[in-house]
Amino acid sequence: MLNYKGYTGHIEFDDEAGLFHGEVVDTKDVVTFQGKSVEEIVQAFKDSVDDYLDFCKERGEKPDKPFSGKFVLRMEPALHHAIHVKAIKAGKSLNKWVNDILETA
Fold first, then answer.
1. What are the CB-based long-range contacts (under 8 Å, 24+) for 44-51?
2. Residue 7 burial (CB count, 10 A)
3. Staple partner for 33: which of 18, 26, 44, 105, CB 3.0–4.6 Å?
4. Which residues on neighbouring strands pair with residue 21, listed in sequence order?
5. DSSP letter assigned to residue 24
6. What pTM did the predictor assign?
7. Cβ–Cβ under 8 Å, residues 1 and 8
8. Which among 38, 95, 104, 44 is positioned nearest to 72, based on CA atoms?
9. Rounded to 5 degrees, what are φ and ψ at 32?
10. Which parts of the chain are beta strand (E)?
């Protein structure tokens, strides 16, 4: 995985074509890149992120932010109650308790 300006690039190697290809995974828009060497694919990734940001700016659109920090999760009411009780017993808010659990997963 590559990281640049808060965006993540996922890379695969196509042995038949003899090149790397990748996609920026943090946007709803399709942003791809390719290269024949590690150096080329890293530069192509950075160029694609920069091009994406420039394109959004030219159109007056906000680029997709990689993550907002909000995560909506639906569950059965009984499970919601159970984890609420566990959070209270741990002396934490529900958000803090879930964050702590997810960090250790």
1. 45/2, 45/4, 45/9, 45/11, 46/4, 48/9, 48/24, 49/4, 49/5, 49/7, 49/9, 49/24, 50/5
2. 22
3. 44
4. 12, 34
5. E
6. 0.67
7. yes
8. 95
9. -120, 170
10. 2-4, 7-14, 19-24, 32-35
* Rounded Cα–Cα distance for residues 69 and 58 (Å): 27
Q: Which residue in this structure is represented by tokens 């160029």?
A: 47
CA distance 37 to 18: 9
Per-residue pLDDT of the chain (105 residues; tens, 9 = 90+): 999 998 999 999 999 999 999 999 988 889 999 999 999 999 999 999 999 999 999 999 999 876 778 888 999 999 999 999 999 999 999 999 999 999 999
32: tokens are 């791809």
| Sign of the alpha-carbon dihedral angle for 32, 65, 80, 101 | positive
Task: Please give the structure tokens belonging to residue 18.
Answer: 């003899």
Question: Is residue 37 within a helix (H) or strand (E), and if so which, with residue range?
Answer: none
Long-range contacts of the stretch 11-17 (C-beta < 8 A, 24+): 11/41, 11/45
